[in-house]
Amino acid sequence: MGEKFPVCSAGEVVKVIRQHGFVLSGQRGSHQKWRHPDGRMVIVAHHGSKSIPIGTLKSIIEGARLTTDDFR
Question: Distance between CA 13 and CA 60 in Å, rounded?
Answer without folding.
Answer: 9
